[in-house]
UniProtKB/TrEMBL annotation:
Belongs to the binding-protein-dependent transport system permease family. HisMQ subfamily. It comes from the Bacteria. Residues 286-297 have a biased composition (Basic and acidic residues). CDD domains: TM_PBP2. InterPro entries: AA_ABC_transptr_permease_3TM (IPR010065), ArtM/GltK/GlnP/TcyL/YhdX-like (IPR043429), MetI-like (IPR000515), MetI-like_sf (IPR035906). It comes from Pseudochrobactrum kiredjianiae. PANTHER family: L-CYSTINE TRANSPORT SYSTEM PERMEASE PROTEIN TCYL (PTHR30614:SF0), MEMBRANE COMPONENT OF AMINO ACID ABC TRANSPORTER (PTHR30614). It is a multi-pass membrane protein. It holds the Pfam family BPD_transp_1. Residues 286-306 are annotated as: Disordered. This is Amino acid ABC transporter permease. Keywords: Amino-acid transport, Cell membrane, Membrane, Transmembrane, Transmembrane helix, Transport. SUPFAM superfamilies: MetI-like.
C-alpha cells in the first residue's frame, strides 16, 4: 500500500508540471531583431538626411511628364513582350515535348540560341537588322518576289524592342512551361485520352490547369525580370523609364536624384507585382493544405470481443 503512494504523488507532480509548462522566452531572437531593426533604422536615417541624394529634386521630378511617359512605355513593353513570350513559349514547350523530331529540334535550336546570347546583344542586332538585310521581302522560294519593304521602315526602336524582348522571353518561358507540364503526373493525360479527349483539349482542360501551380512562381519572377530588362532598350534610343530620367539628368546634371526616381518607380512596380503573384499562387494552391487532414478521419481501433 505504502509503496504505491509515492508513485501516485509523482504522477500528480508530472501532470502539474506539464499543465504549467511554458515555452522559454526567446531572448536571442529578440536581441537579434533589436539589432537588425536598429541597423535598418540607422541606415534609413542616414539615407534620409544625406543631401547628396537630392530628395527635393526626386520629389519635384517624380511625376514629371517625361518620367510618366517613360513609365508608360516601360509598362507597355513589359505587357506586350510577356504576352507574346508566354504564347510563343507555350508553343515551344509543347513542340519540345513532341514526338515529332522536326518540331522538337527546331524548338531546341530556338531555345539554345536565345538563351545562349545576351539580351543586350539581341536588341542591338534587331535594331541594326538593316545592315544585313536592307529589304525584307515576301517571296516564293526560288521564285519571284511578291512584296518587299525597307527594313528601316519596319524595324523601328519600338519594334526592335518588342521583338528582342519577346523572343528572349519566349525561350525562358518555354523551359518554365515545360517544367510545369512535366510536373503533372502522366496518368492525367492517359486518363483524359481514355475519356476521348484530344491532346489539345487535354492540355487545355486537364494538364495546364494542374501545371499552373508550378508555372506561376517562376513566371512571376520572369515578369519582374522583364520590368528590369526593359531598361536595356535605352541603348537603342527607346524612351523607356531609364532613358527618360537620363534625358533629364543630361540637361540638369542631377544624376543621382534622377536615378533615384527610376529606382523608386521600379521598386513600386515590382512590389505590386509581388502582391499579385502571391494572390495568384494562393488561388492555385487552395485546397492543397488542410483538405487532406480535414478529409482524413482518425482510425478507430477495432473493439475486441470480450
Amino acid at each position: 500500500m505504502s509503496a504505491s503512494v509515492p508513485s501516485a504523488a509523482a504522477g500528480d507532480v508530472e501532470r502539474f508540471d506539464v499543465a504549467r509548462a511554458r515555452p522559454p522566452f526567446p531572448l536571442r531572437r529578440v536581441i537579434l531583431w533589436v539589432v537588425i531593426l536598429g541597423v535598418a533604422l540607422d541606415f534609413g536615417i542616414i539615407v534620409a538626411n544625406n543631401p547628396n541624394f537630392g530628395w527635393p529634386v526626386v520629389a519635384a521630378y517624380f511625376f514629371d511628364p517625361t518620367v510618366m511617359e517613360g513609365l508608360t512605355i516601360t509598362l507597355g513593353l513589359t505587357v506586350i513582350a510577356m504576352i507574346i513570350g508566354v504564347a510563343l513559349g507555350l508553343i515551344l514547350a509543347i513542340a519540345r515535348m513532341s514526338q515529332d523530331r522536326l518540331a522538337s529540334s527546331l524548338s531546341n535550336l530556338f531555345i539554345w540560341f536565345f538563351r545562349g546570347t545576351p539580351l543586350l546583344v539581341q536588341l542591338i542586332f534587331w535594331y541594326n537588322l538593316s545592315t544585313l538585310f536592307p529589304k525584307i521581302s515576301l517571296a516564293i522560294p526560288f521564285g519571284p518576289t511578291l512584296i518587299s519593304w525597307n527594313t528601316n521602315d519596319i524595324i523601328t526602336p519600338l519594334t526592335a524592342a518588342i521583338v528582342g524582348l519577346a523572343l528572349n522571353e519566349a525561350a525562358y518561358m518555354a523551359e518554365i512551361i515545360r517544367g510545369g507540364l512535366l510536373s503533372v503526373d502522366k496518368g492525367q493525360g492517359e486518363t483524359a485520352a481514355a475519356f476521348g479527349m484530344t491532346r489539345a483539349r487535354a492540355l487545355r482542360r486537364v494538364i495546364i490547369p494542374q501545371a499552373m501551380r508550378s508555372i506561376v512562381p517562376p513566371t512571376g519572377n520572369q515578369l519582374i525580370s522583364m520590368i528590369k530588362a526593359t531598361s536595356l532598350v535605352s541603348v537603342i534610343a527607346m524612351a523607356d523609364l531609364l532613358y527618360s530620367v537620363q534625358s533629364i539628368y543630361n540637361r540638369t546634371f542631377e544624376v543621382i536624384p534622377m536615378l533615384m526616381v527610376a529606382v523608386i518607380w521600379y521598386l513600386l512596380i515590382t512590389t505590386v507585382l509581388n502582391i499579385g503573384q502571391s494572390a495568384i499562387e494562393r488561388h492555385y494552391n487552395r485546397g492543397e493544405r488542410g483538405d487532406a487532414t480535414k478529409d482524413e478521419a482518425p482510425a478507430v481501433p477495432a473493439q475486441e470481443n470480450a
